[in-house]
């Protein structure tokens, strides 16, 4: 395989969608580069500019579609990449990709690796990755694609498989709170307000992303909290902030899996069917707690639950060990190997 074999990554990341697609694609791209592939990103529009800043800082080559782009515009831009970069394989990480895009890729000899969370992004894919807890082969009956299903294919950054972080001593009163890069449901503010009546002595680390539009209010709530809060915005090394935490409060997404990989028990607030299904499976396995399936949750109940968990380090330790058995942090390597195979096979 040529050392500079180009691979196209197509994804959306913005305030409403969130930035999970971006971060896991970047994790996969880093592992792809180790295998002699050169990633090029085609991202959807993002008015906040957070996606562009993140890719620029990381040194990733990218282009962005215009806010009013059509499927035809998207396909035409993809075709320009195919011709100019001699693209032979593509990663499409979207909730619902357009048939026009997928046909354009496949009809021009590009092998597709589809990251398919909600069973709406797998048309003409050669490899389908669905790392959800509830993904089954039966969901893809009739597909000739290679299936990579289950949490062993979660695409996390390399630090989440590193023993220096996975084996760090637990700090039983350390709580990590994060609701992704944008937090469109304003769950950070709601959670910090809900925790104000806590009886336990805790230390809370809060991380918000560059795409968060609610930062001033979060600062205000954090200043009046009756417990110690460290507030971080746009942290480039979140694994450092998570290190040693015993408990995390989050929605279902990359943060959940990252916390589990580091041995912290997630308390999850979800607000769509896919998130709730995954959270339910995590809870069934005993690796976390699905607290609410709506962003309008019982605030007093959250403080009570956290008090209960902080007072039971044995239970927290058990959930943390179970979470690490589910998420080993090496999914990016597994998926990158499959992507390298596609790029080679397509030559």
> How far is the first residue's CA from the last residue's CA?
8 Å
Helix content: 25-40%
**Over the alpha carbons, how many angstroms does the gyration radius reach?**
20 Å
> Low-confidence spans: pLDDT under 50, at least 5 residues?
none
Blueprint (SSEs and pairs):
Blueprint: E1 5-11, H1 20-34, E2 37-43, H2 50-58, E3 61-64, H3 71-85, E4 89-93, H4 99-107, E5 111-115, E6 127-130, E7 146-149, H5 163-166, E8 171-178, H6 187-195, E9 203-208, H7 215-224, E10 228-233, H8 238-242, E11 245-250, H9 254-261, E12 265-269, H10 273-284, E13 289-292, H11 299-310, H12 313-326, H13 331-345
Parallel strand pairs: 1-2, 1-4, 2-3, 4-5, 5-6, 6-7, 8-9, 8-11, 9-10, 11-12, 12-13
Helix pairs in contact: 1-13, 3-4, 6-7, 6-11, 9-12
List descriptors.
347 residues; 39% helix; 7-stranded parallel beta sheet; alpha/beta; 6-stranded parallel beta sheet; globular; 13 helices
């Amino acid at each position: 395989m040529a050392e500079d074999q180009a691979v196209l990554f197509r994804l959306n990341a913005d305030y409403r969608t969130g930035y999970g697609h971006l971060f896991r694609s970047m994790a996969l791209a880093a592992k792809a580069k180790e295998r002699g592939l050169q990633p090029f990103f085609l991202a959807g529009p993002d008015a906040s500019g957070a996606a562009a800043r993140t890719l620029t800082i990381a040194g990733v080559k990218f282009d962005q579609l215009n806010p009013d782009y059509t499927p035809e515009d998207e396909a035409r831009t993809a075709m320009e990449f195919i011709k100019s970069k001699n693209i032979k394989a593509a990663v499409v990480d979207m909730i619902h990709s357009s048939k026009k895009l997928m046909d354009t890729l496949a009809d021009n000899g590009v092998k597709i690796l589809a990251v398919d969370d909600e069973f709406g992004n797998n048309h003409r894919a050669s490899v389908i990755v669905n790392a959800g807890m509830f993904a089954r082969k039966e969901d893809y009956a009739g597909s000739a694609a290679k299936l990579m299903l289950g949490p062993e294919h979660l695409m996390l950054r390399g630090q989440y498989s590193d023993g220096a972080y996975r084996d760090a001593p637990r700090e039983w009163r350390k709580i990590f709170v994060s609701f992704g890069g944008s937090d469109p449901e304003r769950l950070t503010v709601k959670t910090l307000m809900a925790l104000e009546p806590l009886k336990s002595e805790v230390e809370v680390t809060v991380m918000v992303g560059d795409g968060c539009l609610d930062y001033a209010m979060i600062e205000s709530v954090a200043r009046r909290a009756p417990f110690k809060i460290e507030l971080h915005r746009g942290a480039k090394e979140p694994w450092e902030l998570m290190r040693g935490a015993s408990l995390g409060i989050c929605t279902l997404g990359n943060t959940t899996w990252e916390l589990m990989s580091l041995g912290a028990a997630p308390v999850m607030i979800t607000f769509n069917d896919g998130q709730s299904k995954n959270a339910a499976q995590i809870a069934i396995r005993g690796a976390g707690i699905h607290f609410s399936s709506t962003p309008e949750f019982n605030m007093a109940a959250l403080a009570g639950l956290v008090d209960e968990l902080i007072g039971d380090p044995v239970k927290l330790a058990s959930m943390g060990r179970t979470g690490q058995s589910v998420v080993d942090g090496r999914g990016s390597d597994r998926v990158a190997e499959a992507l390298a195979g596609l790029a080679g096979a397509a030559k």
